[in-house]
Amino acid sequence: MRHLSKSLALIAGLLAISIPAFAADATLRVDDPYIRLVPPGTTTTGAFMTIHNAGNAERKLVKATSPVSDTVQLHTHINDNGVMKMREIPDIAVPAGGKVELKPGSYHIMLIEMKSELKEGDHVPITLSFDDNTTSQLEATVRKLPMMMPASQKMDAGAMKP
To answer: What is the pTM of this model?
Structure first.
């Protein structure tokens, strides 16, 4: 009986220790996941979303996967002597009590070598993996995004005088 009582106490202690680890999973929330619709024949696109962290510690997105693409990478844009370039990065930090936006021109997920063409309205499964070995499975909707005009080509409406 004494062994049983010690065993139950040990199990209860282990469960108490592991509860915060499970609760940490609920600290992350993903809002508005979507994928940019690209022209037919294009095999690369980006996935975007907002990741919220309600926890007390920074978390890092370290990997993303999707069955629609052979290669999935975490990316950012950098300014290299006035030229904006995309670069693969090892992780994306999500600050404690904050959020990170994955959006065009900033952090994003690249889907490279897509296996088939995506259509507007398709729902694409994506699995996000974090630094604590937790994962989040979501579906991103394929959207047609408005074309962005390069800053050098933007019109100054104030310069147009009658």
So the answer is: 0.74
